[in-house]
Amino acid sequence: MHASIDSSFQNFSASAPGARFTDWIATRAEPYWTSATNHAFTRAIGDGSMPDEAYARYLIEDYTFITDLASTLGYLVAKAPNMRAKSRLSAFLALLTSEENDYFLRSFDALGVPAETYETAAQGPVTRAFADLLLTSSGKGSYAEGLTCLLCAEWCYLTWGRREAQKPRPEKFYLAEWIDLHAVSGFEDFVDWIRAELDEIGPALSPLKQETLAELFTRMSMLEDAFFEAAWTGELPAAFDDPQRR
Ligand SMILES: Cc1ncc(CN)c(N)n1
């Protein structure tokens, strides 16, 4: 996944003065970024046409993802360079492990998913790849690398969440609340803060390190898209069927 020199941040900002570093990494992540943020799964949450079977499959898998996301945030709290950043990240971690955890438990109950199932679920190949990328980037990589992965996950959800929040809420509380969790102003503020943090750090990095961040964001976008696809269809996307290509 190596880009030509024309797709560097330097060229991007020369052709669009004032362009943000985070706009560049999202542009570099096409077509996966648009595919993930527009996935049919996200539209079915908003219009209430989501089959229960697909949503239960998604929530079981996502609960394992959320557990690794909590660990990712722990690593980032440790690596954050100042108290302001530690406070932002730990506030989000607190929300994830309280309000959002409670959402999952109530939703599993409503969908008839027993605790034994969601507490012992093994991660599928897409989620395993996600966990690998998130935990390795935040645990072994730099603050900027971990933050880039976090940005992709949360900005993706803010993008579809805000779009679906324009529609009347679906009747099922687990669909309506999933939209609200990702469209409220507090969540938008958090994503804006991650963007501002990376917009400050990114331009000062070497072209090689900028490239690493763009590649991480691209891989994360590909995985977000594959995650929705696997939940939606109940089948693994082609790239995950063949262990050689994972
Ligand atoms: C796979 C995935 N990506 C992102 C999010 C938003 N926290 C999530 N719940 N699940």
UniProtKB/TrEMBL annotation:
A GO molecular-function annotation: thiaminase activity
**Thiaminase-2/PQQC domain location:** 28-233
GO BP field:
thiamine biosynthetic process; thiamine diphosphate biosynthetic process
Cross-referenced InterPro entries: Haem_Oase-like_multi-hlx, TenA_E, Thiaminase-2/PQQC, Thiamine_Salvage_TenA
Mind listing the UniProt keywords for this protein, alphabetically? Answer: Hydrolase, Thiamine biosynthesis
UniProt keyword Manganese, yes or no: no
Query: Any idea which positions bind substrate?
Result: 62, 100, 154
- Range of residues in the leader sequence: none
- What would be one Gene Ontology cellular-component term for the protein? cytosol
Stated family? Belongs to the TenA family.
What this protein is called in its record is Aminopyrimidine aminohydrolase
Supply the source organism for this entry: Roseibium album
